[in-house]
Protein: Metalloreductase STEAP4
Amino acid sequence: MENNCFNMTKLCPDAHNTLGTVCIFGTGDFGRSLGLRLLQAGYSVVFGSRNPQNSSLLPKGAQVLSHVEAAQTSRVIFIAVHRENYEFLSAFSQELAGKVLVDISNNLMKNQYPESNAEYLAKLLPQANVVKAFNTVSAWALQSGSLDASRQVFVCGDNSESKQMVMDIARSLGLTALDQGSLLAAKELENYPLQLFPLWRLPIYIATGLTAAFFIYCVLTDIVYTFVTEGKNNSYRIVISIANRVCPIVSLIMLSLCYLPGVIAAILQLYNGTKYKRFPDWLDKWMLCRKQLGLVALAFAFLHVLYSLIIPIRYYVRQRQNIYIISQVKDNKTLTFDSTMSWRSDSFYSLGILGFSFYVLLGITSLPSVSNMVNWREFRFVQSKLGHITLLLCTAHTLVYGWNKFLYVSRYKWYLPPAYVLSLIVPCIVLVLKLILITPCVDRVITRIRQGWERKSVHVLHDTSGQPLFL
Ligand SMILES: Cc1cc2nc3c(=O)[nH]c(=O)nc-3n(C[C@H](O)[C@H](O)[C@H](O)COP(=O)(O)OP(=O)(O)OC[C@H]3O[C@@H](n4cnc5c(N)ncnc54)[C@H](O)[C@@H]3O)c2cc1C
Ligand SMILES: NC(=O)c1ccc[n+]([C@@H]2O[C@H](COP(=O)([O-])OP(=O)(O)OC[C@H]3O[C@@H](n4cnc5c(N)ncnc54)[C@H](OP(=O)(O)O)[C@@H]3O)[C@@H](O)[C@H]2O)c1
Ligand code: HEM
Structure:
């Protein structure tokens, strides 16, 4: 029964008044899950199988026919078969001429084949219209309906009418269809599900490296040192005190690493006298993962705030306070109010709270639902301007916390500086460089360069007698 609405963009409603008939080749995991969703959405589903009799697992209401018979029922055919088995399709290329073949296939490795699976299918069946789609949606997610992680269906193909039909089907399944252009984009779409958090990798490596390094450093200077020099076992400090030292330090350094590439970029642009010269690869990669760097840093700041909030209820802290008060009573001493100390601790907390609020604001604006609501200038304002203010506040919080501790020799255990001093190095470098870059004379040049102005080098040519010719 030949479908007679081949020229229309939409599938024709059939006799059962469904949205139309969709054909699926292959009754495996993906074919069955897609079939179920299509039936639920109101389509008639016809499977094409090598073995139409063996159909016990198929969703109720679907028909199973041979490939040739099934191909005749619908304009759109989903090829839910692995690429390695595509050869069988060329046996009935006549029946597939003019059909929209949806290639949903993925590979086991990136760039496994010289051409994409979709381009291979198009080469195999040149009279069909191949559309690449649905390969980023998993069979399990389709079946369970929990499509939170994979609601987007990337679609590409050379025939826009065919692409539109596939996008309409995706939308009627409650998915978000995104046009990715021609079939040339298929390779990228096929590589996409094989990626494992590519932009998160570097930030996670940095966070792990810094956490490990500072944890060892703090254990050495706070616990091992006390044990070796005083014979006291302070190991209980690992759980909260050391954790609450490592988390803010990692957070502060990572926050400054979000803003260091922007500063390096500006210095390179100043040096090159143009914005048209490409940045080195490492800088490009660094710039691309700043959002992830920032979000990991924010997670560490959250931990620091939570750890700090429970300080007053810690047994160790209460015990120390009690011992101190009792010794005061015993010695009949009265505590004098130190107003400098009061200023210092209030300023330190206030700077931390302000810094953390701005930090959270940066995190909120990076949510796609929020960033889609602001224009590019507003986004840059929050991320760049407020971002630098956040870095300034958090650095000031740490500086006021440290105050003059770095002046005391007793703080240099085994000649090692206190950890907070190390945490301030990168943030201070970033802030000082940024301060230089925003001074009017430097800023003017950078702004001009970023607007397209180029510093021309003077070409010195020589005439035949060796005299310089200035152009
Ligand atoms: C919690 C948190 C969330 C964050 N979320 C995001 C986020 O969602 N998205 C995000 O991008 N960052 C995010 N960041 C990182 C950071 O806030 C931004 O990247 C911020 O814009 C960096 O500001 P900047 O002034 O250093 O650099 P930029 O705003 O990039 O400005 C530097 C200048 O360099 C130039 N430039 C930048 N890139 C290039 C390039 N590739 N080639 C040529 N010139 C270039 C531009 O002219 C620009 O004016 C987040 C950070 C944190 C802490
Ligand atoms: N599973 C997923 O989550 C998922 C997600 C995205 C994309 N995909 C892609 O979807 C395609 C199918 O995956 P799947 O998980 O459904 O695989 P599967 O469970 O192995 O099913 C493949 C189906 O292909 C048919 N088939 C097998 N060998 C064949 C051959 N030699 N000739 C013709 N047909 C053959 C079989 O159906 P019949 O016995 O009925 O002929 C089989 O059930 C793959 O390209 C995969 O990359 C899968
Ligand atoms: C609500 C906000 C915050 C509060 C209440 C707070 C509180 C504290 C406290 C109590 C300490 C001392 C910890 C100790 O004695 O071991 C501290 C130290 C520190 N804080 Fe914060 N803080 C806040 C936000 C931040 C933020 C956003 C950062 C930046 C990432 C930050 C960075 C630091 C650093 C680097 C130290 C020094 C760690 C050390 O060497 O011990 N703080 N903060």
User: Anything to note?
Assistant: The chain has a mean pLDDT of 91. The chain has two domains: 21-194, 199-450. Strands lie at 21-25, 44-48, 63-65, 76-79, 100-103, 129-132, 152-157, 176-179, 460-462, 468-470. Residues 255, 258-259, 262, 265, 275, 279, 284, 287, 290-291, 294-295, 297-298, 359, 362-363, 366, 380, 383-384, 387, 450 surround flavin-adenine dinucleotide (ligand 1) (CB under 6 Å).
